[in-house]
Protein 1
Amino acid sequence: MIVGAGIVGTYLGAITGDMKIWESKRKLEEKACSGLLSVTGLKQLKLPYKEAIVNEVKGAEIYSENYSFTVKKRSTQAFVLDRYILQKQTLQMAEDNGCRILWNKKWDGEDDTYIIGADGALSKVAESMGIKRRYIFAYQIKAEYKTDSELVKIFLSKRYAPGFFAWIIPEDEKTSRIGIGVKEGNLRNALFEFLSYKGIKIKHIKKEEAGLIPIYEDKKMVNDNKALIGDAAVQVKATTGGGIIFACKAAHILKDAINRNDLKYYETEFKSKYGRDLEMHLKIRKMLNRVDYDALLKKLIKNNVPEIIEKYGDMDHPRKLVKQILMKPALWPLIRYVI
Ligand SMILES: Cc1cc2nc3c(=O)[nH]c(=O)nc-3n(C[C@H](O)[C@H](O)[C@H](O)COP(=O)(O)OP(=O)(O)OC[C@H]3O[C@@H](n4cnc5c(N)ncnc54)[C@H](O)[C@@H]3O)c2cc1C
């Protein structure tokens, strides 16, 4: 049985086929998400994303208090997707492949041959395995805001988004998804205070949503006949909070583990294939949480790091980029954070 018909539970169902999926909600609902997914990640997966594409982005503008830089590639690096359409498609794919979605069915400790916890950030299955998690609290609005539709904006601010960042993800030149992640406090206030402090003028808020981002840690993913996947397994990039690509990659390994009747294979294989990337995201996050953002950006700009990012940057797999950056002696002081 899969617990949770979210994007990850339905994707796992879709590629495995003939699964029972328990879902506590009565029907498919919108979920707080920016829907920014890397082109390379999507192309490696079987996610039916094409109908969900809202925009294509080629790079990002990174801001600290007093410095900023832009990285932009020639080709599309990420798609901005309609998360609801994406999930509707995955759900359809799961049903087409023989899965049964049992709506309004909340898992509360029931047993089965396998219990696959795809039940999100507040996973009951993870709780039943004694696993605790920490979170970033995120708030996002969709509003009218004039911007370059090919660039995502990332704002690093210890004052407004300590432990995370604020973002503007364009749907087109006129509309953006604008959000913030914080460790504690009033989320909505944090976002609007940040916007007013930065002088970012928005019009016509069309949607407001809040959500939890679990912070990645190297946690247990399997116990007896239980396995965790997606946000339940904190397969989330600690730099950005993006969780869909790694979780869907995990689904392919879990499918193999189920076919081999060996859930332990899933944990070992996932950690050996993707553990070092997720660890690197975590190290970068820890470094960001400790440094002064102005000093960091000043140093990165002085050492031509934006050009290195343009050449080696990869939204999901940062190790190659980090290696290149650390070839600059002036940036060696950062080594203590990432090694
Ligand atoms: C503001 C915000 C922006 C984000 N932006 C991005 C982004 O741009 N790119 C990206 O890759 N990721 C992003 N993420 C993260 C991404 O949304 C998650 O990683 C992803 O949705 C996790 O999917 P999931 O299927 O694991 O969990 P969920 O989508 O949360 O699904 C879990 C499902 O399980 C069900 N459930 C829970 N408990 C039970 C139970 N006991 N019994 C039965 N069913 C249950 C829930 O109802 C839900 O349907 C963002 C997250 C937030 C909060």
Protein 2
Amino acid sequence: MNVLIVGAGIGGLGLAALLKQRGIGCEIVEKSPNLEHAGYVLTLYPMGSRVLHGLGKFGEFVERSSPFNSYEVHNGHGDLLHRFDVSKISAEFGYTGQILRKDLLDILRSAASDVPLRLGNGLEHLEQRGERVHVRFSDGTTGVYDAVIGADGLHSKTRRIIFGDEPDHETGWGVWVWWTSVEPPRDTVREYWGKGRFVGLYPTPSRVGAVAAGPKRLLGPDAISGDGLRVRELFSSMVGGGADVMNSFPSTTDGLFFWNLNDYRSHRWTSGRVALLGDASCAFLPAAGVGASMALESAAVMADELSRTNGEFIAKSFALYEKRRRRRAELAQDDSRKLAVWMAADSAPLVWTRDHFMKVATTDSLVRNIAHSLGEPI
Ligand SMILES: Cc1cc2nc3c(=O)[nH]c(=O)nc-3n(C[C@H](O)[C@H](O)[C@H](O)COP(=O)(O)OP(=O)(O)OC[C@H]3O[C@@H](n4cnc5c(N)ncnc54)[C@H](O)[C@@H]3O)c2cc1C
């Protein structure tokens, strides 16, 4: 079997490593010129970290990540609303850690080290003809494959080619991500939920990631044109810890990344010999921090299905993959969207209600589907 994986992100590299283990021939194309950019901090829940056991990479993940034991939600005045004991999840289901995206890519790449990877080359076009998929790349070269798996993220070109262009699901919010000198305890994720403003701190062993989120019309690069001081001003209503974090925001946004807080749900994941995986099929907002775990789970199911077939029945395997994965991913996405709505509350009554609810909230009441999925087979 000769499989093309489009995208060397979490899902694409994870899948490449798993296919390699099963003796399934594959290669990867990645449009970025390298995998070096640190990106942001990722939480990997047991659903994701379990996949690393099978790749012999679990120990390395633990070494290069900070254990996620405690999740603190504060209000916009810096008062602690709730401290969730995440260590209980880890004790029951497996390790949960915080890691730089780059470090996780590094770990996955080392597990797939002899899978050919072409950097700086993107998928441009594909066409299914009989039992083959004909592909054209951005450098003008072409290839013919038994199957193509689009692991090319939120704005998947693979998806647009096979299913057409559909708009993202927009929250209207965006987020700046930077590295800060403010140091929360290494095992604690700390967030400040203000009125129409959000600040978060995510520690890893080497750096602490900070994010500042709010409405794009106020906070986006177009609105503040490179001026970090204006971003800080927008958060001036925050006091206490949230204000300390915002004081560490750089004075210019040059070199920083701004992410639109959009996601996407594809109502079909497969078409014949082409399949979607990870954010390409069901993209996640950072709220709930479960997108990377879901991408790795999907990679595990895809590898399992492909290991039980030959070239003739690939389309059938893809259909089974979609049946095993789509509902579970969409339920997790529902949780992530609901959590994002709470985080983005911007009217005084809503903020009041949210803050009171958060004091008594349980993991189940916030992310019921994700919590439930930990105990379910994939
Ligand atoms: C700020 C932020 C914080 C987040 N925090 C968390 C978190 O804490 N925990 C969590 O689980 N998730 C988090 N997420 C979401 C998580 O990053 C994604 O759900 C996850 O990375 C999805 O993996 P993926 O492999 O599907 O896509 P990606 O990791 O996005 O990889 C897609 C890859 O495809 C490549 N590509 C795109 N188009 C082409 C093309 N045409 N040809 C070739 N290559 C192409 C891209 O360059 C990229 O390398 C966060 C996201 C953001 C933006």
